[in-house]
Structure formats: structure tokens, C-alpha cells
């Protein structure tokens, strides 16, 4: 239907643009959220994986993400583990609600692990609301 734009309703504010950020991402095991300021802390932080043989499984681990949004909203989140050469080895997706926890929150992903096909630099890639991105590199030996 063609025509004029709908008139503005007096007293209604224009919608605000929500901005998102993936402030940090850490690999580890046994994350616990200490408090809202420090966020989650791993019992065992991981800088990478040393495997008996490659190809080989990493075993279970976790990722703790510190996320923020400028408004209380629900947003889609995607994470993936990428091996050398850009091969996707594992992925996770879901929704996070900033409405319940304020504008900054910690979000923990429980990974069952992945099979490393080659040694070298692997990446954790995180995308929040299709706009905020964070990449963390880690070594697999």
C-alpha cells in the first residue's frame, strides 16, 4: 500500500538504538560467578589444549562471556570453535535476556568438547545480536 508515512503520535519517543558488546571471553573449567563487578572466575583457566594425539578430543570445557547491552532486551548469541584453515569444529547458539540481569551479564557455555583435526591456532568466535563480535585465539598441541 502506497501513501504517506504514518503521523507521529505526540508524546511518544523515537525508539532508541541498542548497542551490544562482548566485553570478554575466557576458556576454562568450573566457572563460578563471584560478583557482578568481577564476573565469573574459572577454577582452571585454559590457554589451550595439549592432546595425546591429533586428531583427538579435547574433552569438556566451558566458555565464560561478559556481555552488555545499552537497554534491557533479549538478544541472539552464537559461538563457534574454528580450527586452522577455518573449519568449524563446534558451535552453540541461543538467546540471552538482559532484562532480568541488568545491562551487563555473564553467560557460560558448557561445551562437550571437540575433535582437534590439526595442531595450531584455533579460535573461539562469538557474535551477539549480529553486531558485536569477539574472537579469542588458543593453541592446540
Layout: helices, strands, pairs:
Layout: E1 20-29, E2 32-35, E3 39-41, E4 44-46, E5 48-49, E6 56-57, E7 61-69, E8 74-82, E9 88-97, H1 98-101, E10 104-111, E11 115-116, E12 120-128, E13 132-140
Parallel strand pairs: 5-13
Antiparallel strand pairs: 1-4, 1-7, 2-3, 6-11, 7-10, 8-9, 8-12, 12-13
Task: Describe it.
This protein has 141 residues and is an all-beta fold. The protein contains 1 helix and 13 strands; from the N terminus they run βββββββββαββββ. The strands form 4 sheets. It has a 5-stranded mixed sheet with strand order 5-13-12-8-9. The protein has a 4-stranded antiparallel sheet with strand order 4-1-7-10, with no helix packed on it. The chain has a two-stranded antiparallel ribbon with strand order 2-3. A hairpin with a 3-residue loop joins strand 12 and strand 13. The longest helix has 4 residues, at 98-101.
> Can you write the helix and strand succession as a string?
EEEEEEEEEHEEEE
What value does the average pLDDT take? Answer: 88
The number of distinct β-strands equals 13
How does the major sheet shape up?
5 strands, mixed
The Rg value, from CA coordinates, equals 19 Å
Q: What's the N-to-C terminus distance?
A: 61 Å
Structural class based on helices, strands and sheet pairing: mainly beta
Helix content range of the residues, please?
under 10%
Strand percent estimate: over 45%
Order of adjacent strands in the largest pleated sheet: 5-13-12-8-9
Instruction: Extract low-pLDDT stretches.
Output: 1-8
Number of helices: 1
Shape: globular
